[in-house]
Amino acid sequence: MQAASSGIGYGLKYQARCISDVKADTDHTSFLAGTLSLKEENEVHLIRLSSSGTELFCEGLFSHPNEIWDLVSCPFDQRIFSTVHSNGESYGASIWQIPELYGELNSPQLERITSLDTDAGKIKCVLWWPSGRHDKLISINDENLYLWNLDVSKKTAQVQSQDSAGMLQKLSGGAWDPHDVSSVAATCESYLQFWDVRTMKKTSTIECSHVRSVDYHPKKKHILVTAEHESGIHIWDLRNPKVPIQELPGHTHWTWTVKCNPEYDGLILSAGTDSTVNLWLASTNLDELTTERQEYSPTRWVDSLLHTYSDFEDSIYGLTWSSREPWIFASLSYDGRVVVESVKPFISRK
Amino acid sequence: METDEAPLDDKARRMRDLLSSFYTPIPSISSNSPNDFSRHASPDDINSPTFEPDQYMNVLAHKSNLEALLQKHVEMVAEIKNLDTDLQMLVYENYNKFICATDTIKRMKSNILGMEANMEQLLEKILSVQSRSDNVNTSLSENREHIEKLHRTCNLLRKIQFIYDLPDRLSKCIKHEAYADAVKFYTGAMPIFKAYGDSSFQDCKRASEEAIATIVKNLQEKLFLDSESMQVRAEAAVLLKQLNFPVDNLKARLLEKLKVSLMDIKLDPEVIQNVSSSAHKEAVHEFVEAIRAFKTIFPDSAKQMVKLAQDLVTKHFLIINEYVKTRIHATDLLGVLRIVWSDVLIMDEVLQDASISSYSLEAAEVAIKLYIGSVYSHLMQDISDSLLKVLKRDEAGEYPLEVALEACINVVFRGGRNFLHDIHKILDDNLEIVDKLRDLIIDSVQEGFQEFFRQLEVRFQLLSGRNSSPGTQIQGLTEGGQRDKVLPSLVLVLAQLSVFIAQTTIPKITEELAAPFYSDSVRYYEYRPTFAPEEISQKFKVAGESFLHLYVNMKTQRVSLILHKRFATPNWNKHKEPREVHMFVDLFLQELKIIGSEARQILPQDIRKHKADSNGSTSSSKSNSFREDNRSNNVQKGRNQQLLETHLAKLFKQKVEIFRKVEYTQESVIITIVKLCLKSLQEFVRLQTFNRSGFQQIHLDIQFLRTPLKEIAEDEAAMDFLLDEVVVAAVERCLDPIPLESPILDRLIQAKLAKE
């Protein structure tokens, strides 16, 4: 499509699945990307967008002991991040710190603050407290949900409370509600489940199958976006969890991940295994939607699709908005290619 | 001397003139003569009033000689003498007359003197006559008064007689049915009865009242007797009114009766169609007659009659409205309308000012609208039914999709056309009521089609379970496991049906709509926007595409489920050595077979071969197979290099379009689904980590899949490429990717084949 060449590329050495926006870095637009290589030594790349916005360069390159399945940058310290990693047989999660003088070191080593080890289960992801400095962390493995108390200075992490997902339910991911920090959403095979972290009890569930990714609307309370394997993207209002308030068709193959723009209402990115990133403009206004629903027609879906970025060779698993420059997003395809794009031409249209 | 003679002569003439003017009624001579004089205006003329003797004398003396003067003198003297005698005679005559008059007066005086006595005598006589006559008068007055009294008594007696006779008379009247007389008598006697009824004429009153009661009864009977002639009944009503009988009550009763008879007028559309409508006609005729009668009987009851007639029309149309809700033919509707219209016309005749026809026109408008609506809803129902048959297929054995599709197409196409024919039939029939509603019918048919297709599209969406609004019945159907089993085929049928509607039905119907509807007159073009075929057909095109996508989606979802189970269950890290091809392959192939058969039943074959497709991927498949050979041989090579190779290979090969647009052909749909499934397989593999045996198992399964997939999908290159991709993914996710030795691989595959 027309904007195919607008992206700025950056190549990782190996295959990769995860990329994270470095939220705490307020001076630069930076991303952390981790590789997924079973046999080679994995790396974490600290990628920075040049101030001119035309170039991506590697700010830091750190070796990581295992292949990385999930990576999240700490929201309050740009040098801290968490990974979920696997050595091929077992999974683990760790909190890492980038060494202070990494620029001067030859082959800087990551400093492991602590590992979030639990007895059983294949850990899926780590969630940081949504904003600001806080010592709480959540890790989700396929059976349980853990609330951790992290002490960075003492380099310890303690399980504060935990709850199991229930029989026959395998958790796969989650999101922390930025509006109500006591609420966490976790995805499992056929439900979207919600926990109150204060009591560590399940509060409610939404029935939807094969949820792959979930993201809260950063501005509007109660609005939640989910990506599902085959049925596309659903936008939910938690006050009425029976029916999604809007559906977007998603991708030709699986819709892998979905991200709401931190600044612009209704701007949603999704990435899928059909090697494309789609930019949607969805209405999250309930009143608007109810009137629209009456004139229900499939053509409305086409309208909400703003753009398709198809300049990729492989499935895209990593996707993040930049919180510093909210019109910029980075995507990571399986073949290790990071592409940073700007959605500015579409924002003006709003 | 001349001077003496001349005035004398003049005087005499004047005298004579005056006298003659006095005595002769015509004053012509006297008046003429002065005129003549004045005309001549000569002072010489002796006869003129302006005669001047001196001048005359002068002139005469100057002009004439002596002789002539003398002669003139003689003449004058003679004339004067004559005049004198004339004068004398006149004086005598006057004197005579005077004497005569005096005599007459004298006589009159003597006569009057005698008369006074006579007069007094006469006065005396008259006075005596007067006194005599007074005498006579006074002597007779007594008698006269007596006679008058007697006369009054006689009258009274006669009246009393009449009242006493009244009962008899009334009964006689009753006997002769001369009710009018009876009523006249009774009303005549009424004041007396009122005054004395309680005292002297009690019996009489009672008797006559009884008689009157009978009369009233008889009259009422008469009034209610339908057999009586209208005149008689009207008279009866008038008489009853005269008798101060509460007519309103009667009227109400009669109305009641009419209403009851209204009930009897039944419009049974079914019966009317089959049997001749004479019974109904009769009933209506009766009703109309009754109305006419009622109108003459109670002229002030027009309003009620109109109401009754309107009730009848309303009733009829209510029945029609019910009737059109059932499946009826246009001719049936026409028949019923015709009957009702004829009824209305009859009624209109009777109740001219009631505008029953316009009232019924309104009702007919509603009925026809309902009819059109019901036809559409039936059409919709038919389509739904035949679509739902697809759902029931699994329960009741085989119900081939082809048949279902055929049936649906038939319903949509034929139904629409038949309906249009029906409408034409209705329009062509020159029934007045229909003619008046012509524009309306055309409009609502067009609107109806628009709405119908819109609804149909919504219904399709509902059937496909796509519309996720809660509380729809179709959704209830889709729940409970049915969705997985049945819906995909239905969705496929819907997709094809949508295409058919968009491509064939709508143009045809537009054509049919256009031809006779618009050709009538140009102005119908104004109404065109009510049916917008482009919009509808676009809608269905979009819907068809979305259904096809949905179908593909559903199918891939089902396969995904199989794959998901396959990959979620075992621990791939501790996989045992492969002993056979895993059974998920069977499930996968079976699923594909179902898809194949469904697609073959419903979708058309692709006419052109997939030239572009195969061209696109031959090179890639080559590079892939090359790559794979490389891999299997040089697994020990550094990962870096391998990855580089993959990247390079990807750079050089032409990208196989896994995600190309789905077309309405068997091949396209099947290939798309297979492609998507293999892509899913690849993604599932990427999520796992394999040990050597795990990898070998995957490799084995994939190898086995090659042949049947190629058969199913008819695109070898693409299949090879995708299967290779899966293997590549497995290699990447394996710490120790050493494939099985090819003899073992072959043996296992053969064993699996033999098992089948």
From TrEMBL, chain A:
Which ranges carry the EIPR1-like beta-propeller domain? 5-280
> Which Pfam families does the entry mention?
Beta-prop_EIPR1, WD40
Q: From the UniProt record, list the WD repeat ranges.
A: 248-280
Q: Which UniProt keywords apply?
A: Repeat, WD repeat
Which InterPro entries does the record associate with it? Beta-prop_EIPR1-like, EIPR1, WD40/YVTN_repeat-like_dom_sf, WD40_repeat_dom_sf, WD40_rpt
Q: Which GO terms describe its biological process?
A: protein ubiquitination
PROSITE patterns membership: WD_REPEATS_2
SMART domains the UniProt entry points to: WD40 (SM00320)
Respond yes or no to whether keyword Repeat is given for this record: yes
Q: Provide the family line.
A: Belongs to the WD repeat EIPR1 family.
Protein known as: EIPR1-like beta-propeller domain-containing protein
UniProtKB/TrEMBL annotation, chain B:
Q: Which domain of life is it from?
A: Eukaryota
Gene Ontology annotations for the cellular component aspect, listed alphabetically: cytosol; EARP complex; GARP complex; membrane
- Biased-composition ranges for Low complexity? 614-624
Q: Which InterPro entries match?
A: Vps51
Q: Give the record's keywords alphabetically.
A: Coiled coil, Golgi apparatus, Lipid transport, Protein transport, Transport
The keyword Protein transport belongs to this UniProt entry's keyword annotation: yes
Protein's GO biological process: endocytic recycling; Golgi organization; Golgi vesicle transport; lipid transport; lysosomal transport; protein transport; retrograde transport, endosome to Golgi
What's the family? Belongs to the VPS51 family.
Quaternary structure and partners: Component of the Golgi-associated retrograde protein (GARP) complex.
Q: What is this protein called?
A: Vacuolar protein sorting-associated protein 51 homolog
